[in-house]
Amino acid sequence: MAKKYKKLTTGGIILLLLLINMALLGCKSAKHAENLDDAEVYERFLNGALAIEWKGRQTSIGELFWDNNIEYCFLDIDGDSREELHIRDSSVYYVVDMKDKRPQILFEGWWSYEPVITEEECGVLHYYDGYGSEMIEFMKLNADGSTESGGAFYWSDKNRNGAIDETDSFYGRGDIDMEQYLGYREKYLTRRAEEEPEWKEKQLKVFETWQEAYIDFIEKVDGTLSISDNQWCECSLIYVDGDDIPELFFFSGGMAVGEIIVSFYDGNVRILNRARSGMKYIERGGLLYNGNGATGFYPCNIYRLEKGVFSEIGTGWYTERGDEENNICYEYYWEDEAVTEAEFEAHIDELIDREKCVEPAVLYSEEEMLEKLGDKP
After folding, report:
1. Which residues pair with 57 in a beta bridge?
2. Is the pLDDT of residue 320 over 80?
3. CA 57 → CA 24, 63, 67, distances in Å?
4. How far is it, in rounded angstroms, from Cα 88 to Cα 199?
5. How far apart are CA 98 and CA 84, in angstroms?
6. CA torsion sign, 120 to 190 to 84 to 22?
7. Pick the residue with more confidence: 296 or 300?
8. pLDDT at 9 > cutoff 60
9. Dihedral pair phi/psi, residue 20, rounded to 5°
10. How many CB atoms lie within 10 A of CB 47?
11. Residue 241's closest CA among 284, 279, 289, 303?
């Protein structure tokens, strides 16, 4: 007990010194930033030399993202005739603006947000497409960070033929017809490709070891979505691909984030996030599978991990509904096409052997996993 207490006390002292040092560096960086122009401040922020005030604390760019690879560009999205910094990874998109010579986050959007510029206007597009449905919402972003939305528009493939036609379901602010939906879709979705921003790629860190990389991920995932208060967060080390470096399995304890698989390859990390629990994998086979769903909707996703990169190689789903006699009926789809149950199962079997799939065998709390990672040579 005495040894453990000493370890915790020493760790507490080190943490306190780090926090004091970060505060001093933050003040120094802020003072130095006053003598720089906007481009220089953005460059220092992108390179991790300048922190940003976010959610009550000084935050570096590496702490804002789960992925280690990001994209960034510059464009004026709020109409103030000054270009803002736009940064994103596979999960989150930020707009960073200069206020009083200091960078500040103007907008944060998780999953499926992006900047869009058309001839008439510019703003932020929230777009989701999958499992026989689509959602489009365009928002004007003001200089003070407030947004103005024209409402969200939805399409559902009611006749299940994989195409948008008059017999489908359309709705937004009230019922709309196909022509109105397609007009909105053309304005904000189709035209986004006409003036695609010039994104540049950037790797935030180069990790020397996979232990260092996974410690970094666990610590920053707590700060981004504030999920560390959830007592059900669990972690494990699993072997998905064929090398000797394990992947990190992270369950957030909630469906908003679900499960995350983190890979390490050549000094870099990447993530796979599915907002459902129940991820399974073929040990050292490079394949992952999740067929869990709820409330009458059951998506099926199959992924491959190769050289640290996750790719989805198969997508299907099935739904349940009641008929006129209150019997439960199931409808199956694979890659946006209606199929029979037998065809649905066959598509899965072509890609992965579910009998070989396993779940993480040993689960640890975040604290236990951090200690385990820290103790490894």
Report:
1. 54
2. yes
3. 13, 11, 21
4. 10
5. 8
6. positive
7. 300
8. no
9. -65, -45
10. 12
11. 284
Phi-psi category of residue 315: left, alpha or beta, with phi > 0 → left and psi -120 to 50 → alpha: beta
pLDDT at residue 154 above 90? yes
CA angle (137 as vertex; 132, 141 as ends), nearest 5: 155
Q: Minimal CA–CA distance to 45: which of 109, 4, 114, 101?
A: 101
Give the CA distances from residue 196 to residues 46, 112, 239, in Å, rounded to whole numbers and listed in that order.
Answer: 21, 16, 38
Asked whether 62 and 123 are in contact (CB, 8 A), the reply is: no
Separation of alpha carbons 285 and 357, rounded Å = 9
Query: Which long-range CB contacts under 8 A does 362-368 form with residues at least 24 apart?
Result: 362/236, 363/234, 363/235, 363/236, 363/251, 364/234, 364/235, 364/236, 365/233, 365/234, 365/235, 366/218, 366/222, 366/228, 366/233, 366/235, 368/235
Two tokens, residue 180: 């109105």
Confidence of residue 256 (pLDDT cuts 50, 70, 90): low
What would the DSSP string read from start to end of 250-282? EE-SSTTT-EEEEEEETTEEEEEEESSS--EEE
Any alpha helices (H) in 34-164, and if so which ranges?
38-46
Give CA separation, 325 vs 36, 42, 57, 73, 150, in Å: 72, 63, 58, 56, 41
**Average pLDDT over the chain, rounded to an integer:** 85
Mean pLDDT of the region 311-324: 89
Extract the tokens encoding 201: 């790629």
Helix, strand or coil, per DSSP, at residue 72: strand
Residue 367 or 193, more confident: 367
**What residue has token string 């065809």?**
343
Q: Give Cα 237 distance to the centre of its chain.
A: 21
Q: Is 48 left (phi over 0), alpha (psi -120 to 50) or beta?
A: left
Q: What is the pLDDT of residue 57?
A: 85
pTM: 0.83
pLDDT at 120: 76
For range 47-70, the mean pLDDT: 91
